[in-house]
Amino acid sequence: MQIRRMGKEDIKQVCTIENKTFSHPWSDKSFLDAVNSEHDIYLVAEENDEILGYCGLWGIAGEGQITNVAVSEGHRNLGIARQMLEVLLHEARKDNLTDFTLEVRVSNAPAIHLYHKLGFVDAGIRKNFYEKPTEDAIIMWLRE
To answer: Is the pTM of the predicted complex or chain greater than 0.85?
Structure first.
């Protein structure tokens, strides 16, 4: 498996995973805009020409807003998300981003556990942040 920058050629497979994972999936155009942005970092985990997962962040004023983390259903619980996030944070630090934030569903225990292992701490709650189903989000931060 290799982890590399997402390219336009990856968007179709990324959107397939996105549509199966999230109740409000990003569009092809949203990913294309992110890939083309000089301030954003989007990565894919790939093996044998198959995208296994992806993640990304928006770089804003020295901070990284992690927007997407997803692994295809057949490849979950193999450490792929952790590996991708470690590379994402490393790449972001090379771009002089020093603090990172994200939101996660309060019910997503595996993701919360992973973020804690990476050093993120809970910073608050966004009430009714998610839809389908309606659910609060935990705001998490990793500060350098």
So the answer is: yes
